[in-house]
Every structure is written in C-alpha cells, then in structure tokens.
UniProtKB/TrEMBL annotation:
It comes from Streptomyces parvulus. SMART domains: HTH_LUXR, REC. The keyword S-adenosyl-L-methionine does not apply. This is DNA-binding response regulator. InterPro entries: CheY-like_superfamily, NreC/VraR/RcsB-like_REC, Sig_transdc_resp-reg_C-effctor, Sig_transdc_resp-reg_receiver, Tscrpt_reg_LuxR_C, WalR-like. Residues 4-124 form the Response regulatory domain. Keywords: DNA-binding, Phosphoprotein, Transcription, Transcription regulation. Pfam families: GerE (PF00196), Response_reg (PF00072). The lineage of its organism: Bacteria, Bacillati, Actinomycetota, Actinomycetes, Kitasatosporales.
Amino acid sequence: MTMRVVIVDDQAMVRAGFAALLNAQSDIDVVGEAPDGAQGVELSRRTHPDVVLMDVRMPEMDGLEAARRLLSPPPGVTHRPRVLMLTTFDVDDYVYEALRAGASGFLLKDAPPADLIAAVRVVAAGDALLAPSVTRRLIADFARQRPAARGRPALRLKALTERETEVLTLVARGRSNTEIARTLVLAEQTVKTHVSRVLTKLDLRDRAQAVVFAYESGLVAPGE
C-alpha cells in the first residue's frame, strides 16, 4: 500500500529535496507541500496523508501549533495523520511539546536520506521514531528540568500489571520489542501485546507518548 505524505517546511529547497527523495520510492507518494503550519493543516485536511513531515520553526504558524491542530482536531474532523517533526536542533523544547501533543517522533534535517525514508515508513506503520536515541535524550533533558508529575499521571500507573509496568519502563529506556523480549525472556509477539495494552490502558497514541508519560509520571528518572 502506498503511503501518502505531506511536507510542511518554510524552505522551498528543503521541500523540493524531500519530495524528490520520497517520490522516488515505489511505496511513498508526496501528495502536497506547504510553506507554513497554517497551510499545512489546511492541506492535510484536504488530502488526508498518512504522514506529515512538519518543520518545527516556521512563520505564520509554527510546527508545534500545527501538530496540535492535526492531532487534536475539532469536532467533525476524523482524520488524524501521523506527524514526524523535522528540526535542525537535537534538543528543542518545541519538539518536546510536540511529542506531548502526540507527534510520533522527530528527525534531524541533516539526517542521511536513507534515515528519512525509513522514518516515514516506521511512522506510517504506526510505530514511533525513537531510535537513534535522540528523542529519548530530548525527553530526559526536559524531564530533568521539571519535577516528576505527581497525582493523576502517577495514579494512572496503577492500572498496569507488574509485567506491563516492566515493559513500559523498558520502552521508556529506548528498548525495541526484540530487546524487551530478550530482557524479560518473552516471545516478541507477547511483548507487542503488552505494549498495546499499556497504550490502551493509559490512553496513549504510541511509544513516543509512552516515553513522555513514563518520565513525567516518575516511573523512569533521567540518567537511569
């Protein structure tokens, strides 16, 4: 199945380069480009892409606000694409807030072409882009600056079984399903089931939000 992609970036050359690279893939179709967040939201509402590549810093409307509007649409709007943030910085509070809003990860603009293509495929498949561990480090940096949230986030952890809590902890530390299976001596399919149950019980969109939640609830501490 062909993955539909929208590119939102205020630099025309960046948009053109990404579009040419992605359109050269047999399973990816770039269905539109936009120079700012507001136009990106409008374009996405019309074209219903699977993935939106969203620059963080843009005029008119930045990528954070655009991601919020796409991932928390108004009543009557049912389409919610996956959002992959693009940034020139590996530590950026806008990206952190975008992950909290439901973005599926982020990619540095100077990443190799193969990484961009792989990132689109990973996010389109419904997973979160947490490797290499830049996203994890970003979340840890901001968690270190903020006290762990008490009250409701921590209470929500009580809905998890002991095994599900172990799985969430390892997800937050950036372990893949294969690595979690090896650590806990489980079948990989069993790990996938546990991850799915964690996301459902905590009302989280994907692994990126699970990592944010694990740090903000105090389940995982920066530096562990």
